């Protein structure tokens, strides 16, 4: 769908990344990744959370140092050591949250640090004249003397892009630039991107909106779990194949054991939701969770998976529908309500929403139980030690030291301690958002085994994962989400990677694929 | 817990001992005690006695700071409570006087707590409101005068003695024990540390973070009110303009010297009070030395810097660095 007519392969390459590897401790964030960006190309970089997109960007822009691999810009090897180095080399990045100064004028933002001066005095009029001319190039005819904050996010983005490009950028990285833009603003941004591409600038476009990828990009590169899955021309890539690249393995690989699926009427309904939803967040859904059953939530990033989990746990307040536990309608307005009902929630953002890094493993494990018991019934130190040691042994948390600050543990062990936090409350329902994200391979398998064990012990589980094979392995039922709505529920033998992929990709605007 | 405090408190204990030794050097009678009219006298007692208001403030402040907040209004709350107590002293019984003053402190704390916990205003701004307005309120109560009183009961609060110890010291020790019992005897301490360490995660674990935050500001108000009553009792009058002036900064300093991070999380009541004592031991030492009191501020700054450096993780890095540098030299 790009308006550039040259075949992508014929373009001289601008940015060449070969064998890029980067680890954080035991976690391999990037493994032997290749990436090539041509002159005048718009290249989508896709993948779920944790796939390695941001690590790749941060290595290229000098925020992280790489462990191995080469990065060449126009043939010369570069090794930026800071964002400033990268900008000087010609690689500019515009993030979702615009990194400019909202209280300064548009013109000041464009020329900050390099204002035109005469005898040391900033030539305001000259600066405004140049700023205005610069933005006219981008199709913006605005008052550049007004503060940046008085303009829409789209204008702020374009200002950021204009500044970046004007600093002699040859490669422009746009990280989720359209996430907070409306349709019209996206059009304006795309016009700017096409113009820059026509001028020979290479653009890396990170987005989770596949429609936009099909509309603007020439090629896509997909990462998964820090590995390169592949680079394709967008014109030869049906949407189903793209989603398969992002979420699942090749279909041939997906023959593996499945959780035994009893008919779900045999199990006792433990928690149910009717017409539960929140406007602009997740469309109203019905959901029944039964004892001894795992329900998987599948969908692309931004499809409403995490949002569903947060509604179920009361972290976000629903504005329609009702929740009931064992047939009785219940109030579910806060995590405190949910914890009181016997729900537990391990959020995806383990560091910011899960662990209390300064506290010990013991204190982190007893936190939810203590909160539920209330202030006046403190767990004695002995009880705390017992609980902590019981779960440290049961879940094999390492090192087995309850007095170590949890922030010093590896991701997998932190995740186990968070599971322990909820298991200590003897919950009825556990909601796990990406329980295996950012965890090394060994711990990954252990967590999956734990999920199954817990299920056998009669817990109801609601599990989110972008690893479809993982979901298929442990789920008795899978709810598929698309565009913030629950669109399909698969059960029994229908729980297969291929059927989940089909449900995610269904209803895609195939017209575009046909046109291209 | 019992093991942790001594280990964490090494820097503070060391600082306190060094300062007391210096005090002893400038004033050889520093550690002398004598009993007179059933009350102990001496420089050490003086340090404890003078340090009481800041120690009381730091007991409330340390909890507020542990939640990641700050309370700038404690000095002003002292003035309000002092004014309340002074104006009631000669007409009401001691329980009524103290009860009213504490109720006023509780109301002030509740106001701060609601602004921070419910309306989610940044603590520094929220408590700045009462810091400024509080002096005005105190002046309204005293009608712009310095209200003096003669009530022997209230005077006893500032100048009396219990079992030979000055009353303020006994009150401060009592408050330390009471606060310790409330905070460590219940789950409050853990939940406050969790809230200060990571409010989002605590909320998602079912901790009532709003109630935690509200309660620490209320307790801080009550502690400040008690400090205000003692300060008023000490001078037998309430000075709306000067009572507790700038003491909020000493209280914050005491908490920081006591090793509680301004970002919240781990806290220690005992070390916060030790921080208050370190500050007072310096003040007293300079007065005894005969150097001009202006020097006090500079010395205070140096000691604060020393204690903070001793706690800084960067210092560890630095010493490793210098060690490596020394090794690498031939």
Automatic annotation (TrEMBL), chain A:
InterPro entries: AAA+_ATPase (IPR003593), ABC_carbohydrate_import_ATPase (IPR050107), ABC_transporter-like_ATP-bd (IPR003439), ABC_transporter-like_CS (IPR017871), P-loop_NTPase (IPR027417). It comes from the Bacteria. The keyword Membrane does not apply. GO terms for molecular function: ATP binding. Keywords: ATP-binding, Nucleotide-binding, Repeat, Sugar transport, Transport. Gene3D superfamilies: P-loop containing nucleotide triphosphate hydrolases. Residues 15-250, 266-508 form the ABC transporter domain. CDD domains: ABC_Carb_Monos_I, ABC_Carb_Monos_II. Involved in beta-(1-->2)glucan export. Transmembrane domains (TMD) form a pore in the inner membrane and the ATP-binding domain (NBD) is responsible for energy generation. Belongs to the ABC transporter superfamily. This is Sugar ABC transporter ATP-binding protein. It comes from Bradyrhizobium denitrificans.
């Amino acid at each position: 769908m790009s308006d550039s007519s040259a075949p992508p392969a014929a373009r001289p390459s601008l940015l060449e990344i070969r064998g890029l590897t980067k680890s954080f401790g035991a976690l391999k964030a990037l493994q032997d990744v290749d990436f090539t960006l041509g002159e005048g190309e718009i290249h989508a970089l896709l993948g779920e959370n944790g796939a390695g997109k941001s690590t790749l960007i941060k290595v290229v822009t000098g925020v992280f140092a790489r462990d191995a691999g080469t990065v060449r810009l126009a043939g010369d090897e570069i090794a930026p050591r800071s964002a400033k180095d990268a900008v000087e080399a010609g690689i500019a990045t515009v993030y979702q949250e615009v990194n400019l100064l909202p209280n300064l004028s548009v013109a000041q933002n464009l020329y900050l640090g390099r204002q035109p001066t005469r005898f040391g005095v900033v030539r305001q009029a000259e600066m405004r004249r140049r700023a205005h001319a610069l933005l006219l190039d981008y199709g913006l005819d605005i008052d550049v003397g007004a503060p940046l904050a008085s303009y829409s996010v789209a204008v702020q983005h374009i200002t950021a892009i204009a500044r970046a490009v004007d600093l002699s950028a040859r490669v422009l990285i746009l990280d989720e630039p359209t996430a907070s833009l409306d349709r019209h603003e996206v059009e304006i941004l795309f016009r700017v991107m096409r113009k820059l591409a026509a001028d020979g600038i290479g653009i890396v476009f990170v987005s989770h909106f596949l429609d936009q990828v099909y509309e603007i990009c020439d090629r896509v590169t997909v990462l998964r779990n820090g590995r390169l899955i592949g680079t394709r021309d967008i014109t030869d890539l049906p949407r189903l194949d793209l989603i398969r690249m992002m979420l699942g393995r090749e279909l041939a690989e997906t023959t593996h054991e499945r959780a035994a699926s009893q008919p779900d009427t045999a199990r006792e309904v433990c928690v149910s939701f009717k017409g539960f939803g929140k406007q602009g967040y997740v469309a109203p859904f019905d959901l029944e969770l039964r004892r001894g059953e795992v329900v998987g939530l599948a969908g692309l990033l931004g499809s409403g998976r995490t949002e569903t989990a947060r509604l179920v746990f009361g972290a976000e307040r629903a504005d329609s529908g009702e929740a009931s536990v064992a047939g009785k309608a219940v109030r579910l307005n806060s995590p405190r309500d949910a914890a009181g009902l016997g729900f537990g929630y391990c959020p995806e953002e383990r560091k910011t929403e899960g662990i209390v890094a300064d506290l010990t493993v013991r204190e982190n494990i007893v936190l939810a139980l203590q909160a539920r018991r209330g202030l006046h019934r403190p767990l004695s130190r002995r009880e705390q030690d017992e609980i902590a040691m019981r779960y440290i042994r049961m879940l094999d948390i390492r090192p087995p030291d309850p007095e170590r600050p949890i922030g010093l543990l590896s991701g997998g062990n932190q995740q186990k301690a968070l599971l322990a936090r909820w298991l200590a409350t003897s919950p009825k329902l556990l909601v796990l958002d990406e329980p295996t994200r950012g965890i090394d391979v060994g711990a990954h398998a252990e967590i999956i085994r734990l999920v199954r064990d817990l299920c056998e012990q009669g817990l109801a589980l609601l599990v989110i994962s972008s690893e479809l094979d993982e979901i298929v392995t442990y789920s008795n039922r899978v709810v598929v989400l698309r565009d913030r709505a629950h669109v399909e529920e698969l059960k029994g033998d229908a729980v297969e990677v291929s059927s989940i992929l089909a449900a995610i990709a269904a209803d895609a605007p195939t017209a575009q694929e046909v046109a291209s | 817990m019992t093991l942790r405090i001594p280990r964490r408190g090494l820097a503070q204990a060391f600082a306190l001992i060094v300062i007391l030794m210096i005090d002893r050097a400038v004033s050889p009678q520093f550690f002398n005690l004598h009993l007179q009219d059933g009350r102990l006298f001496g420089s050490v007692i003086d340090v404890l006695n003078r340090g009481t208001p800041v120690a009381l403030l730091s007991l409330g402040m340390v909890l507020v700071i542990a939640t990641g907040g700050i309370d700038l209004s404690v000095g002003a709350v002292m003035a309000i409570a002092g004014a309340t107590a002074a104006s009631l002293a000669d007409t009401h019984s001691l329980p009524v006087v103290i009860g009213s003053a504490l109720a006023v402190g509780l109301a002030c704390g509740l106001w701060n707590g609601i602004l921070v916990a419910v309306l989610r205003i940044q603590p520094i701004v929220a408590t700045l409101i009462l810091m400024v307005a509080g002096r005005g309120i105190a002046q309204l109560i005293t009608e712009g005068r310095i209200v003096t009183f003669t009530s022997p009961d209230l005077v006893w609060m500032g100048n009396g003695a219990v079992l030979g110890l000055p009353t303020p010291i006994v009150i401060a020790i009592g408050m330390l024990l009471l606060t310790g019992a409330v905070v460590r005897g219940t789950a409050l301490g853990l939940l406050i540390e969790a809230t200060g360490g990571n409010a989002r995660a605590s909320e998602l674990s079912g901790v009532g973070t709003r109630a935690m935050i509200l309660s620490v500001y209320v307790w801080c108000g009550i502690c400040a009110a008690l400090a205000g009553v003692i300060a008023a009792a000490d001078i037998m009058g309430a000075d709306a303009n000067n009572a507790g002036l700038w003491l909020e900064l000493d209280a914050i300093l005491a908490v920081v010297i006591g090793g509680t991070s301004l970002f919240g999380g781990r806290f220690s009541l005992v070390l916060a009070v030790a921080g208050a004592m370190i500050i007072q031991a310096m003040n007293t030492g300079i007065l005894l030395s005969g150097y001009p009191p202006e020097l006090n501020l500079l010395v205070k700054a140096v000691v604060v810097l020393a204690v903070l450096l001793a706690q800084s993780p960067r210092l560890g890095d630095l010493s490793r660095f210098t060690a490596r540098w020394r090794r690498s030299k031939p």
